[in-house]
Write a structure and sequence with these properties.
By secondary structure, the protein is an alpha+beta fold. It contains 14 helices and 51 strands. It folds into 5 domains: 20-178, Galactose-binding domain-like (Jelly Rolls), CATH 2.60.120; 181-307, Sandwich (Immunoglobulin-like), CATH 2.60.40.10; 328-583, Alpha-Beta Barrel (TIM Barrel), CATH 3.20.20.80; 598-676, Immunoglobulin-like (Sandwich), CATH 2.60.40; 683-867, Immunoglobulins (Immunoglobulin-like, Sandwich), CATH 2.60.40.10.
Length: 875
Amino acid sequence: MKKFLTLFWLLFFCGNCASGKIYLTANWRYNRGDLKNFEQIKFDDSGWEKVSLPHTLRIEPARFKPGQKYYRGVGLYRLRFSAFSGDGAKYQPGDRVLLHFEGVLTRADVWLNGKYIGWHLGGYTPFTFDITDAFLPGEENLLAVKVDNSKMNVPPEGMLVDYTLFGGIYREVWLELKPPVYLQNPFAYTPELDEQKALLKISSETINTLSEPLSCKFSASLDDKIKGKKGIESITVAQLEKMVIVPAGNSKVNLEMEVINPKLWSPEYPYLYDLSVRLDCDIPEEKNETCSDAKTRAIRDSISFNYGFRFFKFTNQGFFLNGKRVQLIGQNRHQSYPYIGNAAGFRLQYLDALLLKESGANFVRLSHYPQSPDFLDACDHLGLMVFEELPGWGFVGNNEWKAHAEQALREMIVRDRNRPSVILWGVRINEAWWGEKWLEKMIQPAHELDPTRPASGARFVRNFRHIKEDVIAHNDYSGRLIKPPIKKPWIVSEYVVGATSLEKITSSDAQQIATIRNNAYMLDLILSEPSCSGSTGWAFADYNTFMTRLAAPDAKGRIRRHGMVDIFRLKKPVYYFYQAQTTKEPMVKIINQWWQKDDFPGEVLVVGNCEQVRLILNGKEIGTHSPEKNYTYPLSGEYQSLPHPPFSFSGFRFEPGELIAQCLIQGAIKAEDHLHTPGPPAKIQLEFGEEFNWIAPFYLISSDLYSDPVRVIARIVDAQGTPVKDNKTKIQFSVSETGEIIGDNPFQLQDGIAVIFVRLKVSEQMQERFGKELKKLELSVKAQILGNQQIPASEKTILIAQAAETEESAKTLEQKLIQEIDAENKPLEELFGSPELILRKLFKEKIGAIEEFYPQIPLIVSPEELKEKDSGSAQ
């Protein structure tokens, strides 16, 4: 089990080879604003803020006041660390040390030990530096990074941008130790694939830093999973090796192998294999430039990643996956969150993917830039297909700007071309009206780097000029479905979800009903057009924008409320409309908020996947209705293809009390939804966001207690627990010494709800006490209404970790918890796609160094583990 004192780092190693990763997550020093000579080793940063990654340049309000702006400027980061000197991956002469950044917005300038390493411009794609010449193995190193998110000549800058360019080192940073000859950027694809057989082609770049070529063995191994006596076990289903000559400098190696009866990846069954590529070389004595005390040096380097087999095509008759027509239904997603901007950790990335999946989506467009690898990992595991596009928004700049755009496109494709979830590359700038000749040229690098996926890009409404891309995508806000004038595969890349802007979760009932009908009308048109492959609505979540008031008059507080969930990821009624269209489990939801008489529009609208819905008010049946056959808003007509139109009830008066909607299938009640008229506010209902519970506090401990904020949600409710959504008071949050609060505090209630983030922050003194007089760690959050003594404060406490009395008692308690979780004994097929298995796997890939992980298990630490020290951790 992962030791409590271990910082967030991950090592893979074998024999005497050099191969390893160290995540540089914690103990950074940060200063907002520029300072001279900050990169120098002797510079005094003792007064700087101590932060961890991912990090945003400034914590911003969720709702901006008039005239208030988000921070655009410089942020300085410094980190002291030592690495690759312990028992794991140990540096040897000739090894290479690589420094990887997953994402820095917008410009990053990097120094190591006072030496300038280089720079990168563009906020959404990864970049790597070879820092070997400046790196001090076994000694303290100083990494300094200057980040600047000021306006620059780089996408998406140039005009108004309908999203917010929050800056910072907002994704992961990690070190990697490589031997003198190593692999990079492997690419696996299947030019021939069906259910019986796959031809798997694999290529990889090789970097030979020696002066002469080497004879090496290049191999690949494909591992499957079975459920054995000890849980899920791996077996090798295909492997191949070949001898290759690796010349000095950069080159490529290739091989291909046959896979019999591959299990196919799909949204219903997102099956993933583990694919590993490896390079084995021996440096003879006469060529051994790296080890004078050895006759030969064995070089081993490997890269492993998830791989899914699937075949698909976009046609004039729709989209086909694994030989079957599949309607693509999904949403557009922005990556930002309130307060922390783009710096959302692993849990929040997974939260978004799971919310999309549970809404019934099988498709998501990453608007309008490459997004976190953590989010894409979740898409791979959950079975969400992805339309990924280069950064941009309505503008094409000069040649320098275009060069940066092409660089971002190339970096995006190389990063994500092995993912089964990605099915479409967006090579056009979103809604660009000019620069067509250059936009056409962007198709070429996409096809060059990845011949297996089509190129596309979002056009605006009726812009169908100079169509060269493989799949047409257009943002259709016409109110009628516009079919492209030429015969090519096509999708609707934006439509309607936000066409009726939702001011908040509890907008008027009339507005909520109009939004549902608007979406039902447009989705029916899309589903009724056989040539349309699918659609992504606008949008998944509300988001911050700094568009002008003229361009975005609806963006009060600088929030565009176009999402099916709000900016905090709380579900709006329209979320349940989409869920009803595709979910298999019976469900029903009343769209009306049903909480004040003046808001009653004379109609109750219900959504669900039911044959009929029975509506009951205070014990009296209002009626039992079938789904609507016709729509009346925004136009009139008959539903043709919508799987589950809404249910409408009218002709009765508002009456306070209880409203029940019952979902009837073959006459039996399969699901219910209840609404109550609230009484006076009586208490605060406090809860952690669901993302906290998936993988328990264990992940927070292992990532050094800082990097992964989770939501805390407070609701004002009456004595029976019914939300009082018109309460406008302020809530003050406080947290125990094991945590810290991120967000507006006090929080002005919106819809009777307050949301902040909290993350663990355990002091060094507390770590020293843990396992001695301190036997467990807990996180407590308290919420109270300012100036109201009649409503009591609410407090919630969660166990983070507990210390066992002996090593044996630790094992006993752990085994007991594991047995309880495994008692269901689900077959492997049922586990695939479930949050439980996905989080286990993602956790293992993220943190490593544990043999098995089970959600809901608090960290159990034995005394022996507490005594151990780490030898190669970041400091």
